[in-house]
From TrEMBL:
<dbReference type="InterPro" id="IPR001127">
    <property type="entry name" value="PTS_EIIA_1_perm"/>
</dbReference>
<dbReference type="InterPro" id="IPR050890">
    <property type="entry name" value="PTS_EIIA_component"/>
</dbReference>
<keyword id="KW-0813">Transport</keyword>
<protein>
    <submittedName>
        <fullName>PTS glucose transporter subunit IIA</fullName>
    </submittedName>
</protein>
<keyword id="KW-0808">Transferase</keyword>
<feature type="domain" description="PTS EIIA type-1">
    <location>
        <begin position="29"/>
        <end position="133"/>
    </location>
</feature>
<dbReference type="Pfam" id="PF00358">
    <property type="entry name" value="PTS_EIIA_1"/>
</dbReference>
<keyword id="KW-0762">Sugar transport</keyword>
<dbReference type="GO" id="GO:0016301">
    <property type="term" value="F:kinase activity"/>
</dbReference>
<dbReference type="InterPro" id="IPR011055">
    <property type="entry name" value="Dup_hybrid_motif"/>
</dbReference>
<dbReference type="GO" id="GO:0009401">
    <property type="term" value="P:phosphoenolpyruvate-dependent sugar phosphotransferase system"/>
</dbReference>
<dbReference type="GO" id="GO:0005737">
    <property type="term" value="C:cytoplasm"/>
</dbReference>
<keyword id="KW-0598">Phosphotransferase system</keyword>
<keyword id="KW-0418">Kinase</keyword>
C-alpha cells in the first residue's frame, strides 16, 4: 500500500510537433548528435507548430525565437531547438505565444513556425528535444517512428 507513495513519478514528454521521430545521433550537428546538451530525441517536422511537451514553466525564450526551454515541476529541463543554424534568422520565421516565466500546459501552442521559410533559409528543420539535465535523470525512450504534437509520448523521465 505505501510502496506506491515512494515510487518515483515518471514525467511523460510528448511530441512538441508532428513529424518523424529520430535518434539524436541522426542530427547533423555534433552539439546534439554527441549529446553535449543532454539526452533526447529529434523530430523531422512535417507540419504544425511547436506545442508544449509537458506541463511546466518557460525558462528560456531567446530574442531569436529559435528555441525554448521549459522546466517541469519535478525539475526536468527540456530544450526544444527548432531547426539547425536558425539563430542566424534573427527571429524571422517564428511567432512566439509565450514569454519567460509563463506557466504552460501539455499541447499549448508555444511557437508558430513558418517551415517553408526555414527550409529555404536554415541548414535543416530537424528539431532536437533535449533533456538538458539528463545526467541526473533516468530516461526511457519510446520505440516510435511518428510523433503527433501533444499526443505521442516520446520518452519518460524520472529523477535518479
Amino acid at each position: 500500500m505505501f510502496s506506491n507513495l515512494f515510487k518515483k513519478r515518471k514525467l511523460q514528454i510528448f511530441a512538441p510537433v508532428n513529424g518523424e521521430v529520430l535518434s539524436l545521433d541522426k542530427v547533423p550537428d555534433p552539439v546534439f548528435s554527441e549529446k553535449m546538451m543532454g539526452e533526447g530525441v529529434a523530430i523531422m517536422p512535417d507540419e504544425g507548430n511547436i506545442h508544449a511537451p509537458i506541463e511546466g514553466t518557460v525558462i528560456l525564450m531567446p530574442d531569436t525565437k529559435h528555441a525554448i526551454g521549459i522546466r517541469s515541476k519535478d525539475g526536468t529541463e527540456i530544450l526544444i531547438h527548432i531547426g539547425l543554424e536558425t539563430v542566424s534568422l534573427k527571429g524571422n520565421g517564428f511567432n512566439t505565444h509565450v514569454i519567460m516565466g509563463d506557466s504552460i500546459s501539455i499541447g499549448q501552442l508555444l511557437i508558430e513556425v513558418d517551415w517553408s521559410y526555414l527550409k529555404e533559409h536554415a541548414e535543416s528543420i530537424i528539431t532536437p528535444i533535449v533533456i538538458t539535465n539528463s545526467s541526473d535523470r533516468v530516461i526511457q525512450f519510446e520505440n516510435i517512428k511518428q510523433g503527433f504534437a501533444g499526443e505521442t509520448v516520446l520518452m519518460t523521465v524520472s529523477p535518479l
